[in-house]
Structures are given as structure tokens and as C-alpha cells.
Amino acid sequence: MEKEASDKINWIRENEENIRNLKEKQAVYYDDVNILKEADNIINHRSQEKERQYGVIDDNIDDMVTMFNVMTKSELTIEDGYLLLICNKLAREGFTHKEDNLLDAAAYIGALNNYHQKINKQ
């Protein structure tokens, strides 16, 4: 076990410059990418990747709302579920700024808009 820890520390020391460079490149990427473009990318251009990881977002929201309704004897809709997620991210942002809060809120707003467009087509 000590050897594993020692090996990890040595690996980190040997790769410290590469790690630092990667972090700097990530920071530059996020500085250069508009948060709304990144949210659009997540919701509209990487949806297949996200669906493999988490399932279809509308189905996830529907499941979440169904569970909430059963637990509380409420009658929330899928739209209400999206709005709750948006409110959660904005409440977190109100506590302390994290770009991820705003990115997720924007992504959920985009997903809600997609949901409305899909419903209106039916």
C-alpha cells in the first residue's frame, strides 16, 4: 500500500508540468467559450453522449416528477420539474458563484425550450 502511494506521488511529480499545462488549456478554453454556446453544445450537440450516460433528459425529468408526486401527493408536471432544476441552480448561484451553476441553469432552460417545441409539434 505504501508502495502504491509512493508510485502515485512519483507519477504526479514526474507529470506535474503536463498536468499544469492541461489545467491552463482548460482554463483558456472555458474563458474563450461563451456559457450559452457551451449550454447549447451540451443540450443540442452532445445529447447522444449524455443519453448514454444518463438517459433521455425528458424521461429523467418525468421520472423525477413522478417520484416526487408519489412521495408528496402532488401533481407537478415535467415543465415544473425543469423549472425546479433551474431554480435549484440559481439558488446555488445565489449562495456562491460557480460557473457550473450558470451553465447548468442555461442548459436546463434550453432543454425546457426543446421540450416545449417537441410538445407543440405533437
- What ranges have pLDDT less than 50 throughout 5 or more consecutive residues? none
Mean pLDDT: 84
Major sheet size, sense and barrel closure = none
**What oligomeric state best describes the polypeptide chains here?**
single chain
Question: Main attributes?
Answer:
122 residues; mainly alpha; 2 domains; 7 helices; 87% helix; elongated
Structure description:
The protein has helices at 2-14, 16-32, 35-45, 47-54, 57-72, 78-95, 99-121. The chain starts with a helix and ends with a helix. α3 (35-45) packs across α7 (99-121) and α6 packs antiparallel against α7. It folds into 2 domains: 1-32, no CATH class; 34-121, no CATH class. It is built from 7 helices and no strands. The longest helix is centred in the C-terminal third of the chain and has 23 residues, at 99-121. 87% of the residues lie in helices and 0% in strands. The mean pLDDT is 84. By secondary structure, the chain is mainly α.
